[in-house]
Design brief:
By secondary structure, the chain is mainly alpha-helical. It has one domain. Helix 4 packs antiparallel against helix 5 and helix 4 runs antiparallel to helix 6. The longest helix has about 35 residues. It starts with a helix and ends in a 9-residue tail after the last helix. The mean pLDDT is about 80.
């Protein structure tokens, strides 16, 4: 009795059997192109954020270890360096340099679609 209520174990009705013969199963493996584009953009944006954060932390570490008279401790250039880090991170993420976006897309998209840019 409980198997009839479970949608995973339910037997198809006669009308449902005709629908199952349609090529719906093949289309189930292909994600919506809008979803694939949004997922790819989100994965690349996350990789960009990850790289930018890593560059920021590396710069902060270098600033902390630098002597007092070092140009790294000069706050005048910090805004420009942050913008340069953001641009560099964006370019590296678009090239998928670290593979973070690819690892995310491997979980979200079928294997044939996760290498496209």
């Amino acid at each position: 009795m409980l198997d009839k209520l479970n949608p995973l174990h339910a037997q198809p009705q006669a009308a449902d059997a005709d629908l199952e013969k349609a090529p719906v199963a093949a289309a189930a493996n292909v994600p919506d192109p809008v979803y694939a584009k949004k997922a790819t953009q989100a994965a690349v944006d996350f990789e960009s954020f990850f790289i930018q954060n890593m560059l920021h932390q590396m710069r902060e570490s270098a600033k902390t270890l630098a002597p007092e008279d070092s140009p790294l401790k000069d706050p005048v250039n910090s805004d420009m360096l942050d913008m340069a880090d953001k641009m560099l991170a964006g370019h590296m993420a678009n090239q998928r340099a670290f593979g973070v976006a690819d690892a995310i897309l491997k979980q979200l998209l079928p294997s044939g679609l996760n290498k496209g840019g």
